[in-house]
Amino acid sequence: MRASQSRTEGGVHGERLRDRIAAELARARARTTLLTEVVDDGDLMRQHSPLMSPLVWDLAHVGNQEELWLVRDVGGREPVRCDIDELYDAFKQPRRDRPALPLLPPAEARAYLATVRDKVHDLLDAVAFTERPLVADGFAFGMIVQHEQQHDETMLATHQLRSGPAVLHAPPPPEPSARVGGEVLVPAGEFIMGTDTDPWALDNERPAHRVDLPAYAIDAAPVTNGQYAAFIADGGYTERRWWSPAGWEHRVREQLSAPMHWRRDGDDWSYRRFGRWDRVRADEPVVHVCWYEAQAYAAWAGKRLPTEAEWEKAARWDPSTGRSRRYPWGDDDPTQVHANLDQRHLWPAPVGAYPAGASPLGVHQLIGDVWEWTSTTFDGHPGFAAFPYREYSEVFFGDDYRVLRGGSFGTDRSACRGTFRNWDYPIRRQIFSGFRCARDVRPDESYR
Ligand SMILES: [Fe+2]
Prior knowledge:
Layout: H1 11-37, H2 41-45, H3 55-74, H4 106-126, H5 139-161, E1 183-186, E2 189-193, E3 209-213, E4 216-219, H6 225-233, H7 245-254, E5 262-265, E6 268-273, E7 276-279, H8 291-300, H9 308-316, E8 371-377, E9 402-405, E10 421-424, E11 433-434, E12 438-440
Parallel strand pairs: 8-11
Antiparallel strand pairs: 1-4, 2-3, 4-12, 5-6, 6-7, 8-9, 9-10
Bound molecules: fe (ii) ion.
EC number: 1.14.99.50
InterPro entries: CTDL_fold (IPR016187), DinB-like (IPR024775), DinB/YfiT-like (IPR034660), EgtB (IPR017806), EgtB_Actinobacteria (IPR032890), Sulfatase_Mod_Factor_Kinase (IPR051043), SUMF_dom (IPR005532), SUMF_sf (IPR042095)
Family: Belongs to the EgtB family.
């Protein structure tokens, strides 16, 4: 048993929090280990795409952030290795340049991570979860857990770009157990967006604030491969009228004609998923499309992308109580009946596979499966305050990025909430990105 007298906040709460943090750190590290041990050293050092870091950069960067925030800042300990801070600073080293850096070789990177983690366990045993914002509710530990899991998702995306035989294996996602389709009408009115209370929510999810929305309709499920293939078959990629000027220019320059990783297979399509070619399955959410493609599809379908607020209201608003939930299904953490998360499977689940994860209004698969593009550019909520550093999100605010919501099959549950916000450039599609559509409602469809 651990002694707790020496801690300012000990007792059951502190002990439970310590156990939870230790378990989450271990879960993240098991995933990092899996993703970096299924390939050889050459593969770890190689850059599989100019969009991505060599896996060995992500690996040591995860350790370096853990050292900076937990060992040095929270723990006030001596640096383990301050000579490598620059190398693993994501702002100083653009991804395309990272392969040319004098990176720690795999064995050295692994040893570095282990040393840092030992020190973190040491200080976790002794830390007092005081009111200091960085440590209250174990925030810094939660931030580091989420950081590692986010890099694990990035490393999973690197695996998807890697050529060569399959090295990752997982059972297929569950089959549909409900018929889901069409749209859901969301009545006009206020809801609470963002959070003040989720202890590990990041700065850009805060604060909670009221947002008033007109009535709208949103798809009950993400757009499927079958629907997207119909857009392609109808000349979606060759008709300029569906595309924004910037989107069309990008489509032409990059010669986009289908989602990334698709190829023609007779009259059908196949896709490559982690080194295996499969027939495209019609009832799975489409993945690996950029924002411009999503926008063009929506225009073709006579709809539009949802705003970020529309996405969040559909996901969190409970009409019977008027409050916003942590997740579509309630306040409980996700389990495997709720959503396709945690890299349990290596692709999105068919529509209808998670009826227990639907929102009160009947919107399905908002969490997990695919990140969903919204029409909204990335900015702070009203009253935003950068914490604990501007580089986490504030430096990305502005018109360059679009917000994605909900997490994918490759997102860990610790880094996914009804309030969690992701962002990327509108041209990116190496991420696990899909979308659903929304539209304004006509007055005759409106609620009373
Ligand atoms: Fe990072």
